[in-house]
Amino acid sequence: MKKRILFIALSSLFVVSCAELNSTLNSVNETLNSINPNMKMQTQAKNVSAKTICRDLRENALTAKEKWTNTYVSLSGTVSSVDQSAWGGVDVNFNIGNDISILTTPAKNVNVRALKVGQKKKIKGIVRSMMDTGSCRIFLANATF
What we know:
Elements (H helix, E strand, L loop, with lengths): L1 H34 L10 E2 L2 H10 L1 H8 L3 E13 L5 E7 L3 E7 L13 E13 L3 E9 L1
Parallel strand pairs: 1-2, 4-6
Antiparallel strand pairs: 2-3, 2-5, 3-4, 5-6
């Protein structure tokens, strides 16, 4: 009888501990998502062409910015420059034809020294901004190549 009571008590304790652990992990996930809302998006990049983003921007800048800002995307382009930014960071820029530029701030773990002007690359990053001033410019943060 004592073994049975001990078994029930330990089983109850185990179930309660698992429930508390689950609650704690859910709380941690919610906190991380509130700190970095893009964390969910970074698991799967949306494969899209820069021409599509620019077409949306030219058709209606307001809806395009709502649709694409803070979206984790995968684009293709040709390296046009690799340079140090005015703030001491690194900028890697890409062109698609003569009228589309993708301006990126690389993620910290990216080896930009291996990039060469003229290389065609797949670019993944978070759209931070875009503008059309005769030519379309897409600004990506945390970019990888």
